[in-house]
């Protein structure tokens, strides 16, 4: 297994009064509540936590993109990846991901990821996302076009990475006389790895399986994780191959303490802040009309029921295993159980969440790195060998 520290860089200063006053922590939440002086210290703190992940043995660190929200203060994940490029030397840096339908010219993303890949000598993982519903309100974009724009942007970016320029690119949304990006990425077999985080739409699962990219499941109950990974593995078989563990990833908040009860006590309020205070938004904002296809609407709405749109207590999140919280023994036993059932090879732990203070974040990371990761490293090794053997025989 490979272990990544996924940081959301949440704004931790949303008060109960603010939560009660506004119907969302996204889009319309007034930016007068952002204090740049606190932001300076917060960025330095969060970057230091990501830098520390390399020192204690994590395989990678992850940043992502959200706009006009207290939920995450990274409107440009590529800028954060650039900051990490000079603060780290070994870990993979996963940009999870660029919301490619929101860029008017996706060629800029091809250029920026190539720059990052050269800066890091090939340590970049390029995540592509459509962006969740609030992003389409933030940029006044038509959500009914998001999937078509996503596919077109993806095709342009990968072509720019893999074909010699200059060449022309004329499609529905993007028309370019010259595509000839400098620099080109270091990773050229055939391009930087592409990971696709998703809420579990049927179309995304099928498309990722067809492309043989890495699929990441986020913010889900364990029953939904089970359903989605089963669907993904069935989709890969439909396309004539068996998914390797490293083609599947699971992202969720994780907290480790000395005992189960201490872990619950220390994590409770900070988990609830993440899922309720800064995730808060009306359903019409989370899923604007046309964002989901009719085919996926029922499944996605069922799987995401309550997230962001109603209060979810820590106890419910714990019982349904949206989060894994406990002693090192409990955490590693749960992860081992689900890895053996689902077969994923990438675990993206949100070791910081919500208002979790720095000292508890570091304690969480240290316990996870020393008492959980070493016991789980070899999980999935047999599956990898079986997939490799099958590939050799085809």
Automatic annotation (TrEMBL):
Alphabetical list of Pfam families matching this protein? Bac_luciferase (PF00296)
Q: Does the keyword Oxidoreductase apply?
A: yes
Q: Which residues cross the membrane?
A: none
Q: Which InterPro entries match?
A: Bact_Lucif_Oxidored, Luciferase-like_dom, Luciferase-like_sf
Judging by the UniProt lineage, the source's domain of life is Bacteria
Luciferase-like domain spans which residues?
Answer: 45-340
Per UniProt, which keywords does this protein have? Monooxygenase, Oxidoreductase
Name of the protein described by the UniProt record: Alkanesulfonate monooxygenase SsuD/methylene tetrahydromethanopterin reductase-like flavin-dependent oxidoreductase (Luciferase family)
């Amino acid at each position: 297994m490979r272990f990544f520290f996924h940081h959301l860089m949440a704004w931790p200063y949303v008060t109960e009064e603010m939560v009660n006053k506004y119907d969302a922590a996204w889009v319309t939440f007034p930016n007068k509540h952002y204090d740049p002086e606190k932001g300076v210290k917060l960025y330095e703190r969060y970057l230091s936590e990501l830098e520390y992940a390399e020192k204690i043995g994590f395989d990678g660190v992850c940043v992502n993109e959200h706009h006009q929200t207290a939920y995450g203060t990274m409107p440009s994940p590529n800028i954060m990846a650039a900051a990490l490029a000079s603060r780290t030397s070994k870990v993979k840096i996963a940009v999870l991901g660029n919301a490619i339908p929101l860029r008017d010219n996706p060629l800029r993303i091809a250029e920026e990821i190539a720059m990052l890949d050269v800066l890091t000598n090939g340590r970049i993982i390029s995540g592509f996302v459509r962006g969740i519903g609030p992003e389409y309100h933030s940029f006044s974009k038509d959500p009914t076009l998001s999937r078509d724009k996503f596919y077109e942007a993806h095709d342009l970016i990968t072509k720019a990475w893999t074909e010699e320029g200059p060449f022309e690119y004329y499609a529905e949304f993007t028309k370019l006389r010259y595509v000839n990006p400098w620099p080109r990425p270091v990773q050229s077999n055939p391009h930087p790895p592409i990971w696709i985080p998703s809420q579990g739409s049927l179309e995304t699962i099928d498309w990722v399986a067809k492309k043989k990219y890495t699929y990441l499941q986020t913010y889900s109950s364990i029953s939904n994780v089970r359903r989605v990974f089963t669907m993904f593995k069935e989709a890969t078989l439909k396309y004539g191959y068996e998914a390797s563990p490293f083609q599947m990833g699971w992202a969720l908040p994780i907290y480790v303490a000395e005992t189960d009860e201490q872990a619950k006590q220390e994590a409770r309020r900070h988990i609830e802040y993440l899922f309720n205070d800064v995730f808060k938004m009306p359903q019409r904002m989370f899923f604007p009309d046309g964002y989901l296809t009719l085919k996926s609407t029922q499944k996605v709405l069922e799987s995401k029921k309550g997230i962001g749109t109603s209060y979810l207590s820590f106890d419910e999140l714990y019982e349904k295993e949206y989060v894994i919280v406990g002693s090192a023994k409990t955490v590693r036993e749960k992860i081992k159980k689900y890895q053996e059932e689902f077969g994923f090879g990438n675990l993206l732990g949100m070791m910081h969440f919500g208002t979790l203070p720095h000292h508890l974040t570091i304690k969480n990371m240290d316990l996870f790195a020393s008492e959980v990761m070493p016991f789980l490293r070899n999980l999935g090794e047999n599956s990898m060998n079986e997939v490799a053997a099958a590939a050799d025989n085809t």
